Structures are given as structure tokens and as C-alpha cells.
TrEMBL record:
Gene3D superfamilies: 2.40.50.100, Nucleic acid-binding proteins, P-loop containing nucleotide triphosphate hydrolases. Coiled coil: none annotated. One of its GO terms (molecular function) is ATP binding. This is ABC transporter ATP-binding protein. GO terms for cellular component: ATP-binding cassette (ABC) transporter complex. It comes from Ureibacillus endophyticus.
């Protein structure tokens, strides 16, 4: 397993600047995810690491080795694409063995490696099956086995679950995570699905328009987003526009457009925010961190929407100038109704303050 380092990498296609000055260090053995909306540059970055594209400027290293313009087949990487790119009329074993045959490995050795990796991906009995006789989830595991059998230094996965239905996606994401941690291979995963990214990754890079917005563990990204884009892209979030009133050593108070005062902790201010008086700031709070009844930062609103999912109740609560999404865990008590007034409070440590 190797580390992957990108230093001031840019990539342009004609006039389109797909990647703008990317700096990134992925640790050996890490499960690292590129996350962002369509067109943000995830696949372009992955392709530069694979060697299918060369950067317009900047450098890429695997450990200390500069691989910026090295051919893909010289990089010892395994790849799984969205469509798997398997050979449909060949058997599972023939597909898995393909990369080893190309490398002219002795037959006996190929057999040992193929058998081992087939066990790891839980396809023990399926060696002689044809690809077109397998389910989508099984095909996905063949593609993974084929990428892993060459013992790559780095495994690259580009939306590998998007052809599977919801239930199978969930099962398969645990499978991929299990296999990856069993083998300890450095893995870079591309997805636009934030749940997938949160569930699988050691660290996530959130991208927008060819730029990095934040890099961190799933918890850091979810609990301490640095701006509104990250806060809204990852999970559900409320953002309320306000102006800064006072900032002390520990606390910050802001006033919303309708004159509501909210008090929070200074340690919850994004490092990117400016703290001048009267400065516009965005208060961010997760729906599950808002509580019923009186307390800190209390407010009264009118329920405009109710949804019950079993695990929790989701409400939209209309205030004068903004609407809050509120999620209350199910405790068996009756649901509130549309039109009802409700008092809410937000503990000051649950408010985050974002500059942009
Ligand atoms: P998706 O989730 O839709 O695959 P992505 O985040 O992987 O999106 P990229 O495919 O990396 O995004 O594309 C980034 C930008 O570069 C887009 O604006 C895209 O149109 C552009 N782009 C990508 N490949 C090419 C190419 N070969 N020629 C011209 N423009 C390209």
C-alpha cells in the first residue's frame, strides 16, 4: 500500500477548467472518498491518479515516486468502474485472472491467487459461472476481485455501486469496506452519494466546481462543516441568515432578520468566517439537534409539514422569516399536527456559524 499525493494539480479541457489547484495527501491504507455533485471534478481527479489523463500543471506522487506522466499500466493500480467492464461470455475465474495472464504469470500461481481472492469476495462456488449468469451484486464483486487480484498499491473505485438497487447497495458497501480493511489497500472512492461516503470512508474530500471545499473524517465534515455548501450537501441542515451582534472570548450572539437573537459558542465558528460586528453570518443547525420546549435559544413557530418515518418524526416549523427542519426521535408519543404552534429550543453548543 502506498500514499497518494497531489501537488498543485490543475486540469483544463479547452476552456473548461475542470480542476483548480488541488493539493491532497492520502495516507497508505486509507479509505478516501471524493464526494460532490455531478461535474465537480471527481472522475477527472481519479483519472489523473490512474494515468488516463495527465494534469495540465502540477504533480502526482505515489509515496515518493513522481508518477505524473507514467503510463496507467506502470502504476500498479486496480480499478472498478460504474459499468464493471467485465467480459460477459467468460467465466468468473477467467475474468478475475485476466490481469495476471496479461502479466504472463505462471498458470499455477494464477490459480492460487484467483482462488484466494474469490474466497475473499465471497464467490467461492462461482468460479465456473459465466458473468451473464450472475446477479448485479455478484458481478460487482467479480469486478472488485479482478481489480484486487493483481495486488495493487492503490485501488480506484468510480461509483461502483450505482447500478445496484438500494438494498443491494447497502449490503455491498459493507462488503467493499470489509474487503478493503481485510487487505489494507489504499482506496480512493468516487461518489455523489453522501450516505455512502459517510458510511465507508476514513476521510472525505468534498468538492464543488473543481475545487476542494473541505477534507476531513465523516464526523468532522458532518459536525463541523466549514461553509453552507458542505453543510447542505452532507445530510439535512438548516441555515439561517443573521448579523453578528457581539463576540466574546467564549460566545457569539447574532440577530436574525426578524430580530431573533441566537447565542452560540465561539469554538463553533468556521475558521473561514469573519467576525466583524454587523457582518452577515449563517447559523447552521442539524434538524436532530433542535429540541421541544423551553430552553436556550427558544422560539415559537407553526408546524407546516409532518412526516413520520418510524424511527423519527420530521417537522417543518415556520418562523417569521425562516422555516426550520426538525427531527425528533420516535418515543411513541402522538405526532404534532399541521397548524399547531410549537416551542423549540436549540442548545447553544448545537449552533454552527458559517461565513459563506
Ligand atoms: P459525475 O459525477 O457526473 O461523473 P464528476 O464530478 O466526476 O461528475 P468530471 O467528470 O470530473 O465530474 O467533470 C468535471 C468537469 O470537466 C465537467 O465540467 C465536465 O464537463 C468537464 N470534463 C470532463 N471530462 C472532459 C473531457 N474529456 N472533455 C471536456 N470536458 C470534460
Amino acid at each position: 500500500m502506498k500514499g497518494v499525493h497531489l501537488k498543485q494539480v490543475t486540469k483544463s479541457f479547452g476552456n473548461v477548467q475542470a480542476i483548480k489547484d488541488l493539493n491532497l495527501s492520502i495516507k497508505p491504507g486509507e479509505f478516501f472518498t471524493f464526494l460532490g455533485p455531478s461535474g465537480c471534478g471527481k472522475t477527472t481527479t481519479l483519472r489523473m491518479i490512474a494515468g488516463f489523463y495527465y494534469p495540465t500543471t502540477g504533480h502526482i506522487y505515489f509515496d515518493e515516486q513522481n508518477v505524473t506522466t507514467l503510463q496507467p499500466n506502470k502504476r500498479n493500480i486496480g480499478m472498478v468502474f460504474q459499468n464493471y467492464a467485465l467480459f460477459p461470455h467468460m467465466t468468473v475465474d477467467e475474468n478475475i485472472a485476466f490481469g495476471l495472464k496479461v502479466r504472463k504469470m505462471p498458470k499455477k500461481e494464477i490459480e492460487t491467487k484467483v482462488n484466494r481472492i474469490r474466497e475473499i469476495v465471497h464467490l467461492g462456488e462461482y468460479g465456473h459461472r459465466k458473468i451473464n449468469e450472475l446477479s448485479g451484486g455478484q458481478q460487482q464483486r467479480v469486478a472488485l476481485a479482478r481489480a484486487l487480484v493483481i495486488e495493487p498499491d492503490i485501488l480506484l473505485l468510480d461509483e461502483p455501486l450505482s447500478n445496484l438497487d438500494a438494498k443491494l447497495r447497502e449490503e455491498t458497501r459493507f462488503e467493499i469496506k470489509r474487503i478493503q480493511s481485510e487487505l489494507g489497500v489504499t482506496t480512493i472512492y468516487v461518489t455523489h452519494d453522501q450516505t455512502e461516503a459517510m458510511a465507508m470512508s476514513d476521510r472525505i474530500m468534498v468538492m464543488e466546481n473543481g475545487e476542494v471545499k473541505q477534507i476531513g473524517t465523516p464526523q468532522e465534515i458532518y459536525n463541523r462543516p466549514v461553509n453552507r455548501f458542505v453543510s447542505n450537501f452532507i445530510g439535512e441542515s438548516n441555515t439561517i441568515e443573521a448579523k453578528i451582534e457581539t463576540v466574546s472570548a467564549d460566545d457569539i450572539t447574532v440577530q436574525t432578520k426578524d430580530g431573533m437573537r441566537l447565542r452560540g459558542k465561539k469554538q463553533n465558528v468556521s475558521p473561514l468566517a469573519q467576525l466583524d460586528r454587523e457582518q452577515t453570518i449563517y447559523v447552521s443547525v442539524r434538524p436532530e439537534l433542535i429540541q421541544y420546549g423551553p430552553g436556550e435559544n427558544e422560539m415559537v413557530g407553526t408546524i407546516s409539514f409532518v412526516e413520520f418515518t418510524g424511527l423519527s418524526a420530521h417537522y417543518l416549523v415556520k418562523m417569521q422569516n425562516f422555516t426550520l427542519k426538525v427531527m425528533i426521535l420516535n418515543d411513541g408519543s402522538p405526532l404534532k399536527k399541521v397548524g399547531e404552534q410549537i416551542m423549540l429550543n436549540i442548545p447553544s453548543e448545537n449552533l454552527y456559524f458559517l461565513g459563506e
